[in-house]
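User: I'm writing a tutorial on reading structure tokens. Could you give me a worked example: one chain, its sequence, then its tokens, then a sentence or two explaining what the tokens reveal?
Assistant: Sure. Here is the example chain.
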Amino acid sequence: MTLTITRPDDWHLHLRDGSVLADLVPHTSRQFARAIVMPNLTPPVINTEMARSYRQRILAAVPAVDSFEPLMSLYLTNNTPADEIIRAKESGIVHGFKYYPAGATTNSDAGVTDIKNAYPALEAMQKNNMILQVHGEVVDPTVDIFDREARFIEQVLEPLKNDLPELKIVFEHITTKHAAQFVSDADQYVAATITPQHLLYNRNEIFKGGIRPHYYCLPVLKREEHRLELVKAACSGNPKFFLGTDSAPHAQNKKESSCGCAGIFSAPLAIELYARSFDENDARDKLESFASFYGADFYGLPRNTDTITLEKKEWTVPASFPLASEKIIPMHASEKEKWKMKMTSPT
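And here are its predicted structure tokens:
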């Protein structure tokens, strides 16, 4: 069995920086035409000139055989000036601002401590039709980690929508039935990305046979009832839901450590993972729209015109990949997969 779809895009991707780019970029560029690149570097990418420089470093790492466009995002802070939104919009290379609640995830310490602090920038974003990309979790340590997304909707997103009703928001890597319902019920200014791990697994996967650090991400995997609602949303044909891997590379020694940093590295087999999920849920006919159309439409970009072909064929995922002088463990390392990308075809 084969499946040919319009070449997809990844609307949420971490590529890091420096020497690792040469090892990371090709995993994405072989299958995706474009990707929204997250700005949580050290230091964070907080202005258009930093994004322009970072973009050039990414492009330098794209293999000659691939065609790939990095779509840049800027890191929203308490002090992002309104005129930076105008510069970003006029640049043509910046497509959103990422809102990290300070301390919520990897390299988020410079994030927003109170959403009200960012209102001047958010008002400028609404005025200039610039997208806000949201990591949707509260950081209050007294709130159970499995409830932080639902609490974020109540405390941050709902008030924000009331105050700035035409601000375009992508609720990234949603993990709960609460988020799926919020997005479904919202108006045309709200959409969401869904990762492969949250479609395929519930929180039991982290603890099978002991603690499995390569299945630890933030937001963390949730109960089965939430996974089922995410599958329902992704396979529904609702244009508010689209592909965003949140592939987050960390070297093996940092994942398998006393702290076990958060992030799942799905980039080497991302489209194959989505194909598996849609196939298992009898929704192969919905994959193309989810992976290739809805994200581009929401971001106001043209749909791709080339195609990729996937084949239902068993293969074994490599145990690891190089990451500069270290190694990185992919999702499903050494396991059998059911779908394999065969080729990319130009128009």
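What the tokens reveal: The chain is about 35% helix and 20% strand. The CA atoms of residues 28 and 151 lie 33 Å apart.
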